[in-house]
Amino acid sequence: MSKKATGKSDSARDKLVAGLQDDLAREFKAIIQYVIFSQKLDTARYMNIADQLQEHAHQELDHALAIARQIDYLGAYPTHVPKPVEVSENNEEMLWADLRAEDDTIQNYRDRVREAEEIGEIALAEIIRDIMKQEQDHQIDLATALGVVPDQQRRGKKK
Ligand SMILES: [Fe+2]
Ligand SMILES: [Fe+2]
Questions:
Q1: CA distance linking residue 84 with residue 147, whole number of Å
Q2: How many angstroms does the Cα of residue 24 sit away from the middle of ligand 1?
Q3: Of the bound ligands, which one is closest to the alpha carbon of residue 140?
Q4: Residue ranges of domains in the chain, CATH in brackets
Q5: What is the per-residue pLDDT across 40-99, written as a single tens digit (0 to 9) for each?
Q6: How many CA atoms lie within 13 A of 139 on its CB side?
């Protein structure tokens, strides 16, 4: 590592921006899946969670706006490309697709908080923490509807 201190912090900043772009792409994916699945869940058993998914859709839009704002603040142009969207006609598969996406999102936001703090972007880390609280609520809603444990680590291999 012969890089100067500023070089290191520049690359840490670039890594943070790249991570946030991925986060934004995940938020777009989440919006799309929740918009569709909230309308397509069609068994009486899942009517309650369908209403919750509609709520999630609104919150994911708020997250996308917050992340895009931070990307702009860091001097980059926000992505317009969502992560690949998963679709299904099967009620349980829809919920699993959403739950896997929330697991992935939470894992990534944990990394982002660390990366932001490492370069002194404390306010950004706070904003991501607030978003993570809602993602964990989403995870709980989905896991509860599916009858599994919300914490991914304790959920085991069950698909
Ligand atoms: Fe989100
Ligand atoms: Fe979410």
A1: 26
A2: 8
A3: 2
A4: 7-152 (1.20.1260.10)
A5: 999 999 999 999 999 999 999 999 999 999 999 999 999 999 999 999 999 999 999 999
A6: 20
Measured in Å, residue 134 CA sits from the centre of ligand 2 at 7
Cα angle 106, 64, 46 (rounded to 5 degrees) comes to: 65
- Distance, in Å, from the CA atom of 50 to the CA atom of 22, rounded to the nearest integer, reads 27
Q: How many whole angstroms from 130 Cα to the centroid of ligand 1?
A: 10
Longest CA–CA separation in the chain, Å: 62
Q: Are 106 and 135 in contact (CB under 8 A)?
A: yes
What is the model's pTM? 0.92
5 Cα to the center of ligand 2, angstroms = 36
65 Cα: distance to centroid of ligand 1 (angstroms): 10
Token code pair at residue 9: 């912090």
What is the number of the ligand closest to the CA of 55?
2
pLDDT reported for residue 1: 43
Ligand 1 center to 157 CA (angstroms): 24
| Distant-in-sequence, close-in-space partners of 109: CB < 8 Å, separation ≥ 6 | 23, 128, 131, 132, 135
* Residue 19 identity (one-letter amino acid): G
